[in-house]
Give the backbone structure.
Amino acid sequence: MLNESALRQVLGNEQVKNLPVVVISINGRKRTGKSFMLTQFVKYLYQKNDPEWVNRLVNGSFEWAGGQARVTFGINIRTEPIVVEINESGQNKKIAVVLLDCQGLFDPNTPKEQECKLLAFSALLSSVFIFNDNTGLSEDIMSYLNEYAEYAKLIGANCSASNKLD
Ligand SMILES: Nc1nc2c(ncn2[C@@H]2O[C@H](COP(=O)(O)OP(=O)(O)OP(=O)(O)O)[C@@H](O)[C@H]2O)c(=O)[nH]1
Ligand SMILES: [Mg+2]
């Protein structure tokens, strides 16, 4: 279920509502450090001029933890977008970076249909899609991904986003 007011809060934020938005999403095998990686992104994007950025804490990062128990459920959006200055064709411009964290895949207790939806929506919503795994890209994973991507294309075709995953 989409939490529309949370989404409005993010994209209607005064600081970013007139800026181009880049959505970075991460998906992939459960328990492989996806939320940990996004937390590093948050730290870097806020403090990239500080050589010690990796050791600095930032409020409002994604929840991550060690151990076997799963941490992330559903698709989570960081409620505060990050404004970043980039240089495009010699011109400095501001963009808003929105980060999406996703429930891990390949869980034997999660119905395959639910995993398909998670992958499809996170891929369709993103400008940059990161797939995280720690087992290497085997043929099995490629065919799993292919199947999920076909599902995403079907959803995309119904909401005029069909070219995105070609
Ligand atoms: N130091 C270090 N720890 C990592 C790295 N990648 C993963 N970890 C550890 O992996 C564990 C799991 O991290 P999470 O970010 O919670 O993993 P996740 O993939 O989001 O897990 P789920 O949301 O449950 O699917 C944590 O203990 C991290 O510290 C890495 O590159 N460096
Ligand atoms: Mg996680």
About this structure: Helices lie at 4-11, 34-47, 112-125, 139-158.
